[in-house]
Specification:
133 residues; Rieske Iron-sulfur Protein; four-stranded antiparallel sheet; 10 strands; 0% helix
């Protein structure tokens, strides 16, 4: 499992103000009714995901797509029980261009915006509201 380098959640240091190199921003997820910082965008690679630990002990998979959008869904593959979705391949559907991640194990695709499995309508993973702080 690949964990984001910043796993201290709410204790992340803010970027240094007034410096030319302070371009990284935090990625925050809405869990319950609170925002939680989970990683810095500098720790994300376009087209790849990272696993982050949430305050309640669950894992989320955070993705940065090549267009610069950030998504977060649950990291547990519901078909196998393995925490691997952060290691999946991301792409876009051919019909409407929806972003998805394909599980690295059995290759089921999950919509990154909704968590819905695109290959089995009865299955979904949690999807998290994301903001950059």
């Amino acid at each position: 499992m690949t964990l984001a380098p910043e796993t201290t959640l709410d204790r992340l240091a803010p970027a240094a103000a007034g410096t030319a190199t302070a371009t990284a921003t935090r990625v925050e997820l809405l869990v319950g009714n609170r925002w939680h910082a989970v990683c810095d965008t500098a720790g994300l690679t376009p087209g790849r995901g990272v696993a982050v630990l949430l305050p309640d002990g669950r894992q989320a998979a955070v993705f940065l797509d090549r267009a610069g959008a950030v998504y977060a869904i649950g990291n547990q593959d519901p078909f196998t029980g393995a925490y691997v979705l952060s290691r999946g391949l991301i792409g876009r559907t051919g019909r409407d261009g929806r972003p998805f991640v394909a599980s690295p194990l059995l290759k089921q695709r999950f919509d990154l915006a909704t968590g819905q499995c695109l290959d089995d309508a009865s299955v979904a993973v949690p999807a998290y509201t994301v903001r950059r702080g």
